[in-house]
Amino acid sequence: MDDRTQTIEQIKLLRELQRRKAREHFRDYLPYINKNYKTKWFHAVMADWCQRFYEGEVDKLIITLPPQHGKSEISSRIFPSWVFGKDPDTQLVLVSYAADLAKGFCLAVQRYMGTDEYKRLFPDTFLNTERLAKYRNYLCSSEYFDIVGHRGFMKTVGVSGGLTGNPVRVAIIDDPFKDSEEANSPVQREKVWDWYNNVLSTRLHNDSRQLMVMTRWHEDDLVGRILNSKDSANWTVINIPAICEKDDDGDLHSGRKVGEALWPEEHSLENLYVKMNNDPHGFNCLYQGNPGSKEGRLYHDFKTYIDKKEYGTYVRSGAYLDVADSGTDDTTLITYDIYRAPTTVYNEQTKRFEPLLFALVTDFESNPANTDVMRARVPMVINRQTPAVQNLWCESNSAGRTFGSDVSKKIRAHVSMFYQSANKESRIITNAPFVNEQIIMPFDWQTRHPALYQKVTHYLSVFKANAHDDVPDVLTGIYEKELSLANDATYSHRRGLRRK
After folding, report:
1. What counts of helices (H) and strands (E) characterise the chain?
2. In terms of Cα–Cα distance, which of 296, 295, 292, 288 is closest to 66?
3. Are residues 298 and 432 in contact, defined by beta-carbon separation less than 8 angstroms?
4. What is the Cα–Cα distance from 351 to 247, expressed in whole angstroms?
5. More confident residue, 486 or 175
6. Which domains does the chain have, with CATH numbers?
């Protein structure tokens, strides 16, 4: 055998070896089917998890990566083609935030399956792309195709689109939110969650699998909802942050050190830090996959009490009520005791030393909207306090006046009605540092008042990103009415706080 013939044979053997590896291993299929794909370590990690998903080692898989790091190319364009090559009977649905984007994924899968490389690798898996009459029963369009001679199909749909017909064995969800504006909308988050539960989930069965590939936008996005649901234990989550947070990326064995960029050739550490400095909360969501980080919270850790005397001398006891008109906010009541610290503080506005006051939260009640339940609960909570509540602050806006009037007949405390005209967002954000320092929670508030704890500790500094603002609004009101003026007098019977 001459050298030329030997070289040809070696090339043939090498190509056959490449095909064999591409059939068996999805990470080897990536560069085989897309010669221009630059596989980095995190792409290989993602590919290996996709293979474990295909093989049934995990049935519900979430992979979160920063934007522009190649996740959609792997999960939504290349992976489906490999799955159909391995099992042409697979019934697959691919979902994205928009139908047009999902169609683009469908066409990309078709292009990969139409290449000569694919035909040599999986000769028994092909589509009726030429609309041949002999395959007239097999459809092929921009949003749907059948596998000729098999039961497999791929259907693509945007969130809110319909899904009817055959059961689905594999569901791939690729970014159900378009951008931060959508993700920050409580209405849109609820819409996506409703579609997931009442449309997509109805097509799944016991043997179905779900792959969710996302850039995180919000702690209450679809991933957040799932991880806070009873089904969370059934999901495996792989998060790969743009800036390394653990050496070796923990169990991923990346070789990275803390502080190193994920893909420095494309997204340098310098550019990542610019993004981080411009929008810390957005960066932790999008690039670190951690929307629940403390950097995005409006409040830091609250002080707590066991013995109230730790905060000084008792002054008075009050309550603050925010009555919801309708919609998503709750009617919320917080009761508290006011204590005066033994020291004074210098007030920059009044240019004098004034008493330092604390509001120690004693009880909490919250229920959706202006309900009959709350008309009974509010008086009960107020009347059971010791020391007794002497004054109830109640906003008179809209439903507040009627509600407050009804409650006043059932409590011993005086009701101070007032009209709140200031901008809610401005009040909450401006007074947040003072609320954090001067409102004190019970030491066990996480278990005693879990709803209060959740609404306070998870409240985001991006105001529009929050579904509810009733509790921060009440805490802000307590600071404004009870603490901001440093008034350590008792209550009057007519005007709330008695002037000194």
Report:
1. 18, 14
2. 288
3. yes
4. 51
5. 175
6. 58-240 (3.40.50.300), 241-284 (no CATH), 304-483 (3.30.420)
Q: How many C-beta neighbours within 10 Å does residue 424 have?
A: 13
Identify which of 364, 363, 369 has the alpha carbon closest to the alpha carbon of residue 331. Answer: 369
Residue 153 neighbours by CB distance under 10 Å: 21
Residue with the bigger pLDDT between 247 and 368: it is 247
Global pTM exceeds 0.85: no
| CB-based burial label for 369 (10 Å; 0-12, 13-18, 19+) | middle
Rg of the chain over all Cα atoms, to the nearest angstrom: 30
* Helical (H) or strand (E) element with 64: strand 60-64
- CA-CA distances (angstroms) from residue 230 to 219, 224, 235, 424, 449? 17, 12, 11, 34, 21
At 327, the pLDDT band (50, 70, 90 cuts) reads low
Q: What is the pLDDT of residues 431-470, one digit of tens each?
A: 999 999 999 999 999 999 988 998 898 887 767 667 778 9
pLDDT at residue number 339: 97
Tell whether the torsion through CA atoms of 41, 47, 53 and 56 is positive or negative. Answer: negative
What are the helix (H) ranges across 324-390?
372-383
Question: Long-range contacts of range 254-261, CB-CB < 8 Å, 24 or more positions apart?
Answer: 254/41, 254/42, 254/45, 255/41
Euclidean distance between CA atoms 384 and 367, whole angstroms:
18
Q: What is the pLDDT of residues 182-209, one digit of tens each?
A: 888 888 989 999 999 999 999 999 999 9
